[in-house]
Write a structure and sequence with these properties.
15 helices, 0% strand, globular
Length: 279
């Protein structure tokens, strides 16, 4: 635990984490340019929102003009965080503005889990970056550059563990069977037209592989936070898993680029000069 969260790390690791989080959030926000138009939704849509819930997510009706201003401000501060301009301030403001979109993430992503929408980890991660000391490029390794990265990785790991717990809570162990996987594929195939859906559904062996592979990955992925060796195995497997999910079910995981959070960027930087010297 101590090694995972407090081992000294170089400044490049924290800077790379900020860039990945800001780039991910910017991609999601720019791919949904109609976000300011949410203000035009019928009043009945917002009528069921309790005042306490609205206050929790800093929601208040702003009007179309202010919604566009807020959208532009969000894009601007995400760009600032991306390029490292006032990194702590820009990360904090970006996180606050992203937090206001949290209740709408399922709608924006078109999927029934907020952790799949692509903004949950950037919102929390940018808050963590804002609280960490901004590193100088030539700073010596320090735990200050490690703990925000480790906590961000842990938040992202819950994108796998939470769906596992939900499956066990609402469906039980029977979710991880070939029959259930086949049923999911056949329900989604007419809607998504996934290219490999019919082929996988027609094979008991492949359906069992998907079921047991899902169980193994979702249960074990948090180990990637605490073990570099586990991360070297689980992170590539997760990438393959998400590509397979798109091909078999037609579901794309918007947070896929966040797997780059598990790259040890300082190690890569140190290895490159050593390789050139050896050559």
């Amino acid at each position: 635990m101590e090694a995972a969260f407090l081992a000294p790390a170089g400044p490049r690791l924290l800077s790379a984490t900020r860039v990945i989080l800001a780039a991910q959030a910017l991609w999601i926000v720019l791919s949904r340019p109609a976000l300011p138009l949410l203000e035009r939704w019928p009043d009945v849509f917002w009528s069921g929102v309790e005042p306490g819930l609205a206050a929790r997510f800093l929601y208040a009706p702003l009007g179309p003009v202010l919604m566009w201003i807020r959208y532009g401000a969000l894009v601007a501060v995400l760009l600032a965080a991306l390029i490292g301009l006032w990194p702590r301030i820009s990360s904090a403001i970006a996180a606050v503005l992203l937090y206001q979109l949290a209740p709408l993430e399922e709608i924006l992503a078109g999927m029934p889990h907020t952790s799949f929408g692509g903004l949950t980890t950037p919102t929390i991660g940018l808050f963590l970056v804002a609280f960490a000391e901004a590193p100088a490029p030539d700073a010596t390794p320090s735990p200050e550059w490690r703990w925000p990265v480790a906590l961000t990785r842990l938040v992202f790991a819950f994108s796998y563990l939470s769906p596992l717990l939900a499956k066990l809570r609402f469906a039980g162990p029977a979710w991880f069977t070939a029959d259930n996987v086949r049923a999911w594929i056949m329900v989604n195939e007419p809607l998504t037209r996934a290219p490999l859906g019919s082929a996988v559904a027609g094979s008991d062996a492949l359906c069992w592989a998907v079921a047991l592979g899902t169980l193994a990955l979702e249960a074990s992925f948090p180990l990637a936070v605490f073990s570099p060796r586990a991360a070297r195995i689980l992170v590539p497997l997760a990438a393959v898993f998400h590509i397979g999910t798109a091909l078999v079910l037609g579901y794309f995981f918007p947070s896929l680029p966040l797997l780059l959070l598990f790259v040890e960027w300082d190690v890569i930087r140190a290895a490159r000069p050593a390789a050139r010297a050896a050559a």
